[in-house]
């Protein structure tokens, strides 16, 4: 490239650190923009860095992306940029795979322990100044089915195994002797696997195949005492069916970090269910996560500008980064 590349950076409320972006700024023209100015920033740009990883602005500005070669999103999920024009283009898409794996795995373990030890119930008793002796459950020996076998699922599997749980996976293709999951069954065999699981953890990417994977028939296939944890995407779940399953006792509880509508409306029935734990899409947001997201991009930019293959390249047909 005879000129310096142009990098458009879409941000929301927080600008990337100048210090961390210095490796890019010294070798490229950097255009910072909010949602309203994205089309102008994309005009002539070679690279788009979506630091606003929840944005819905890219499809509407895509008409200006005639020079775009590479799009990087500061997230593991790439569904915001899997619209037809981007899929069909020659633009390479990369994600921030690897940043959130350990933190989300810890969140899943914490939610499982909270269910087993009834920590929310203990807090309610404390708040009412009630001394009430109770017994709790063990998690050692309990079964966990992890739906989604990417890096976050693998980190979760390793941590749950270390806590003594029996772990298996559900993914696109079946296989035995997996180093982290042991046995991985294919998605079409999910119902029979659900029947044996005490905890079902959803970490799958959102694709047309996984949208509403968890619905009335899925919840009906679970054990009545099973707990459901969703740290994948809200749209993996048909929320009304989940509410109905919780109310009917079809499943025993749910820990939810993601929702099909965010923020979750204040009048939504999930808020008032004592067997539900709600967090605001922050299961992976550890101290320093925003800086790590920038570093993933700047490291990949160094590869791109020097002609090395990019890391974390998304298969646009599959909608995620294939496992190595």
Brief overview, please?
This protein is α/β, with parallel strands linked by helices. It has eleven helices and 13 strands. Keywords: NAD, Oxidoreductase.
Count of DSSP strands = 13
Radius of gyration (Å): 21 Å
CATH H level of the largest domain: which superfamily? NAD(P)-binding Rossmann-like Domain
Task: Give the rounded overall mean pLDDT.
Answer: 97
Question: From the 3D coordinates, which CATH architecture of the largest domain would you assign?
Answer: 3-Layer(aba) Sandwich
Write the layout of secondary structure elements.
Blueprint: E1 6-10, H1 18-25, E2 29-33, H2 38-42, E3 47-50, H3 58-61, E4 70-73, H4 84-88, E5 92-94, H5 101-117, H6 119-127, E6 143-147, H7 151-162, E7 166-171, E8 175-178, E9 182-186, H8 190-194, E10 199-202, H9 216-220, E11 227-230, H10 239-248, E12 253-256, E13 276-278, H11 289-305
Parallel strand pairs: 1-2, 1-3, 3-4, 4-5, 6-7, 6-10, 7-9, 10-11, 11-12, 12-13
Antiparallel strand pairs: 8-9
Helix pairs in contact: 1-11, 5-7
């Amino acid at each position: 490239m005879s000129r310096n590349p142009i990098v458009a950076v879409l941000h929301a409320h927080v600008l990337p650190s100048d210090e961390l972006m210095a490796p890019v700024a010294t070798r490229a023209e950097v255009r910072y923009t909010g949602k309203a100015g994205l089309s102008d920033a994309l005009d002539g740009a070679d690279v788009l860095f979506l630091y606003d990883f929840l944005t819905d602005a890219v499809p509407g500005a895509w008409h200006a992306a005639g020079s775009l070669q590479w799009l990087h999103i500061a997230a593991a999920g790439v569904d915001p940029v899997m619209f037809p024009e981007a899929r069909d283009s020659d633009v390479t898409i990369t994600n921030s795979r690897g940043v959130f794996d350990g933190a989300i795995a810890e969140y899943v373990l914490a939610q499982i322990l909270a269910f087993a030890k009834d920590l929310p119930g203990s807090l309610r008793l404390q708040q009412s100044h009630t001394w009430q002796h109770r017994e709790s459950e063990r998690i050692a020996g309990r079964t966990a089915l992890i739906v989604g076998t990417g890096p976050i699922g693998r980190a979760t599997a390793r941590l749950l195994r270390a806590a003594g749980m029996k772990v298996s996976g559900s993914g696109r293709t079946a296989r035995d002797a997996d180093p982290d999951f042991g046995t991985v069954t294919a998605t079409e065999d999910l119902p029979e696997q659900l029947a044996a699981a005490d905890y079902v953890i959803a970490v799958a990417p959102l694709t047309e195949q996984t949208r509403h994977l968890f619905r009335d028939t899925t919840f009906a296939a679970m054990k009545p005492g099973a707990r459901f944890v969703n740290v994948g995407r809200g749209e993996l779940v048909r929320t009304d069916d989940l509410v109905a399953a919780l109310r009917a006792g079809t499943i025993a509880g749910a820990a939810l970090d993601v929702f099909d509508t965010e923020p979750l409306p204040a009048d939504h029935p999930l808020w008032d269910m004592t067997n539900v734990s709600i967090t605001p899409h922050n299961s992976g947001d550890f101290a320093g996560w925003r800086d790590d997201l920038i570093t993933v991009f700047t490291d990949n930019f160094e590869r791109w500008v020097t002609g090395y293959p990019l890391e974390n390249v998304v298969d646009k047909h599959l909608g995620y980064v294939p496992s190595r």
